[in-house]
Amino acid sequence: MTAPPQPIRRSDARPPTPPAVGVRLAGTGHALPETRLTNADLERVLDTSDEWIVQRTGIRERRVCRRERGEGVHSLALDAARAALADARVDPADLDLVILSSVTGDTLVPATSCRIAADLGADRAGAFDLAAACSGFVYGLNIAHDLIRGGAYRTICVIGCDAMSRIVDPSDRRTVILFGDAAGAAVLRPTDDTSKGVLAQCMHADGSRWRDLYLPHSRLDIPDGDDPDDTPLHCLRMRGREVYKFAVITFSDLIDETLAKAGLVADDIDLFIAHQSNARILESARERFGLPEQKMYVNIDRYGNSSAGSVPLCLSELRAAGRVGDGNLVMFVAFGAGLTWASSLWRV
Ligand code: ACO
Fold first, then answer.
1. With left for phi above 0 and alpha for psi between -120 and 50, is residue 102 left, alpha or beta?
2. C-alpha–C-alpha distance, residues 123 and 250, integer Å
């Protein structure tokens, strides 16, 4: 005879309230390939000029991985993560999570972050790759921050890395001049100082604009309007002018939206760390908000647009130069393929 069903009883236990913790940027680091590709190098192989590139983009040189040396997202991201862990004085074994933001990972399966976690010695860490193109690091920062603030995780390494040289068509002067390879990483940890961490954040996407920046793997991926005979597979395709217009408007709107969420004005922000897409795009945002030059960091002249690597590379350079002070208000902003755009406003 089966026992009569017992009434289901709710547990008296309440879910634990998340601890009120702050989140701090405990350490940062970056890594770059040694090989420089200058505008003069490009002039020799393409119908372009140093003058055109500098005037339209502000870029003078970029770094590129050498595949034959084994360089790629895995090696760059690993070096950047090691530098960030050393800076934070954190033992890799203490990492709870490794997030790699990248659209050029060495392998799709497994996620490149899994190999990086293993090579770091982060034996008990979870790991996943995050694909939000140039916005990837800022997405990762927001996610990691909230996981720590929620109390579920303590130590997270967020890496932004892209080896764009892998996916640009070397014969396409519209894209090859723009992109470079780089990695940057940040280690996030909880702190008793609850004033530290994200004050406001935004993450957006508009997939209806996917055609503006895409990478076709088969003829079926090529949208109407793009000539299949003039669209090489496995190479980035970009409608530069469309992306430019989108970026100029989005940058300003995103900054406005983030400031409004935090109840602040642009003058209150000590430093804007923006995705290095084009010096003219950064300049127009700076002018729109009347910011002095030192508040909007620019290193695109040296590295080009390194996609997800660009924001953490700036952050790492700025911290190394002592320009990110304790208690500063720092706003990260980025946009990219998707189209995606994201911001993260921190008290560091
Ligand atoms: N050298 C010389 N001439 C060139 C080059 C070059 N490298 N590239 C294009 N041109 C020519 C074009 O063929 C065109 O010639 P035409 O008028 O005879 O047809 C002319 O220059 C103007 O071309 P546009 O594409 O209209 O040039 P524009 O002023 O828009 O500048 C650029 C191009 C620099 C790509 C710009 O549109 C831009 O920066 N867009 C944003 C791109 C961006 O940020 N992309 C990254 C997004 S982030 C991510 O997720 C990857």
1. beta
2. 40
Low-confidence ranges of the chain (pLDDT < 70): 1-19
Residue 19: what pLDDT? 53
Average pLDDT, the chain: 94
Residue of the CA atom closest to atom 12 of ligand 1: 174
Contacts of 271 (CB under 8 A, 6+ apart): 295, 297, 318, 323, 324, 328, 329, 330, 331
pLDDT at 230: 85
Report the distance separating Cα 30 and Cα 179, nearest Å: 17
Q: What is the 240 CA–ligand 1 centroid distance (Å)?
A: 5
| Domains of the chain, start order | 22-191 (3.40.47.10), 197-347 (3.40.47.10)
Best mutation site among 53, 103, 169, 174 for ligand 1 pocket (most ligand atoms within 8 Å of CB): 174
Specify the pTM.
Answer: 0.93
